[in-house]
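Question (not urgent): is this output format expected?
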Amino acid sequence: MVEVKRRQNEGVESFLRRFSRRVQQSGVLIQARKIRFHSRKKNRRKRREEAKRRNELMKERERLIKLGEIDEMADTSNSRRRSRY
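Got this back:
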């Protein structure tokens, strides 16, 4: 924990500069970013279920392409509209 007290006759700008320097040197911000963006590892069962789901979707997409119901060159990764599968 960083504690900075304002000195007598110290301006707000210099106090703020001193405070921000102490916070950066302490590593508090780096630790906060690590905690904020940390994602927990998924367990084995969850990973397998997701892989199985991806395979099913891929097979269904290939089937629809063969039937001609969707365009083979259509980019579905970032489009807002969903295809029929």
